[in-house]
Amino acid sequence: MGRNGKAVTMSYETPGQGRPLTTALAEAAATAGYAPSVHNTQPWRWLVLPDTLELRIVRDRQLTATDPEGRLLAISCGAALHHARLALAAEGWTAVVERLPDPAQPDLLARLTGLDRSGADTDAMRMVQCMQVRHTDRRPVSDEPVPTAAIGEISRAVAAEGASLQILDSDQVMELAAAASHAGTIEARDPQLREELGYWTSRADGGTGLPPEVLPEQQPQTTVPGRDFGRTGTLPIGPGHDKAAVYGLLNGDEDEPDSWLRAGEALSALWLTATRLGVSVVPLSGVVEVPGTRQTLRQLLSGLGFPYLVVRLGIADPAHAGPPHTPRLPTEQVVDTSAVRDQRS
Ligand SMILES: Cc1cc2nc3c(=O)[nH]c(=O)nc-3n(C[C@H](O)[C@H](O)[C@H](O)COP(=O)(O)O)c2cc1C
To answer: Using an 8 Å Cβ cutoff, are 333 and 21 in contact?
Structure first.
């Protein structure tokens, strides 16, 4: 979404033809830095090899108390993987993606190989531009309904990545609201979770975590409570509510690292498509973090799938300028090009 909350209008530059593959790989990994991640942990590291790009987990940035199984970590890394795939496609490269290619190395999440030249993909170019303006806007949405056609397009983008988006009806939204409130209470009582949240919301610099500028100055009035970050920020919020918001449950057939990674790719596809259509997205993961409320979400899926993440979809209030962008780690801390240093232009 543009800063004024409207759908993004794009202009294109011709992708760089004839640049070395290693440069394209390094640039795709750098572009993946725009990806969203839980608490802005950016728990990934890319290794650029002569004809391969590898994505690895950085365990130091895992939320060990909040996310001991690594579900949200893998979803975050999957979003980065999808960003990198699109960045390569926008530059005219196709790649074969191997997910969790080596059982002996569970932290090696993906390997992109078999890189080949194709025509520049204008859809991918547009999505790369959406990466640069996408952001989490935690303020209330406007009263404008989300167009049904947009929800359809967003759901298809999720399905294309092998996951599903279940749109919740009004009774299910009430159940979600109760579950989110319950999850919030449980998390607020847990000293380890509070300490972890405190750490990621009080990092003055360093390029990770959530600065006060992106956190609301007071809890917005909502039916489904957003995450209580345990501290107020400085982001001014208007009087709005979430009445016109649509809630969706990202889900899939398995509850394993491979499916979490794909869920992250689907989340990226969802969010970039929404951005292109002028729809604002806020993930709500507290309900997934607490086992009891995750079970409630499972029941909302009639036991037919596993919940990965809840998303609030809405039309941002056009009176609001977007919140400032959340900082990112410097590229050299997340992209290792040491193996190809001599080969890059
Ligand atoms: C797996 C995942 C879970 C998230 N959970 C929440 C959440 O519960 N509440 C929230 O306000 N934001 C949530 N976010 C949004 C992140 O905080 C946000 O993406 C990150 O701070 C980077 O900011 P940006 O999206 O504005 O670039 C989540 C993001 C991801 C990828």
So the answer is: no
> Among all chains, which residue has been given the structure tokens 């609030």?
312
DSSP H/E element including 250: strand 246-252
User: Alpha carbon of 305 to those of 8, 166, 238, 308: distances in Å?
Assistant: 33, 10, 37, 10
Best mutation site among 31, 40, 325, 334 for ligand 1 pocket (most ligand atoms within 8 Å of CB):
40
Q: What is the value of pTM for the model shown? A: 0.95
Ligand 1 center to residue 14 CA distance, Å? 32
Q: What is the pLDDT of residues 157-171, one digit of tens each?
A: 999 999 999 999 999
Token reading at 223: 């039916």
Q: How far apart are CA 62 and CA 50, in angstroms?
A: 29
Helix intervals (H) in the chain: 21-31, 71-90, 122-133, 148-160, 170-189, 191-200, 257-276, 286-289, 291-300, 331-334
What's the CA-to-centroid distance between 38 and ligand 1, angstroms?
5
